[in-house]
Amino acid sequence: MILFIGDLMTSGSGAEFLAGALLLLGGAIFEVCAVALSFIDLTEHRLPNRILYPWAGVTTGILVLVALLLGDLPGLLRGVAAGLLWGFVFLLVRLVHPPSIGMGDVKLAVVLGLYTGFLGWVTVAAAVVLSFVLAGVVAIILLITRQADRRTRIAFGPFLIIGTALALIGS
Fold first, then answer.
1. According to the model, what pLDDT value does residue 150 have?
2. Cα(31)–Cα(27) distance, rounded to whole angstroms?
3. Dihedral of CA 21/67/11/30: which sign?
4. How far is Cα 20 from Cα 36, in angstroms, rounded to an integer?
5. Is 120 left (phi over 0), alpha (psi -120 to 50) or beta?
6. Locate the Prepilin type IV endopeptidase peptidase domain: which residues (predicted)?
7. In terms of residue numbers, what domain contains 131?
8. Using an 8 Å Cβ cutoff, are 96 and 150 in contact?
9. pTM of the full predicted structure?
């Protein structure tokens, strides 16, 4: 993502520069929302709609503008599809086994899917895998050190956010 934004902003095209600036704005919004949601999830085990819904709306708006500026309708459609797919899979998990994942995580997955899907399916897959691997490693460490047992609730939102951030940075 960093190289992509750099290429856009140094291309010499006004439209590409503006698209790069919008993506930088989207990244800044990602950071602010990610930090706030992570702290809330770690302390309260919830991801509030008052942050998630505006974040989803602003992200969608930014990606629509970027897609128009770059003529990248497939990227926008892929982002929407990735968000809906990731959210749908999480919703299915929630419906099958409610204690395993919260509705906040379902909604967060939609927002993160928008970001990653815009860049491509490889980025989506990387974000999902990194999120689960990071959560798994931390869970194992907590179990080994007896700081948690199999009934301990572990906030998943921060892992979704960190895994997605790493995937976006690596793209």
1. 82
2. 6
3. positive
4. 24
5. left
6. 30-140
7. 2-170
8. no
9. 0.93
Question: Looking at the 3D structure of the chain, how many domains does it have?
Answer: 1
Kindly tell me if the per-residue pLDDT of 1 is higher than 90.
Answer: no
Contact indicator for 159, 108 with CB cutoff of 8 Å: no
Measured distance CA(21)–CA(132) in Å, rounded: 31
Amino acid at 158: P
Q: Which amino acid is at 79?
A: G
Question: Do 78 and 120 contact (CB within 8 A), yes or no?
Answer: yes
Q: SS3 string of the chain?
A: CHHHHHHHHCCCCHHHHHHHHHHHHHHHHHHHHHHHHHHHHHHHCCCCHHHHHHHHHHHHHHHHHHHHHHCCHHHHHHHHHHHHHHHHHHHHHHHHCHHHCCHHHHHHHHHHHHHHHHHCHHHHHHHHHHHHHHHHHHHHHHHHCCCCCCCCCCCCHHHHHHHHHHHHHHC
pLDDT band at 77 (very low <50, low <70, confident <90, very high): very high
- Among candidates 111, 115, 107, 118, which has minimal Cα distance to 77? 118
Residues 167, 149: Cα–Cα separation, whole Å: 29
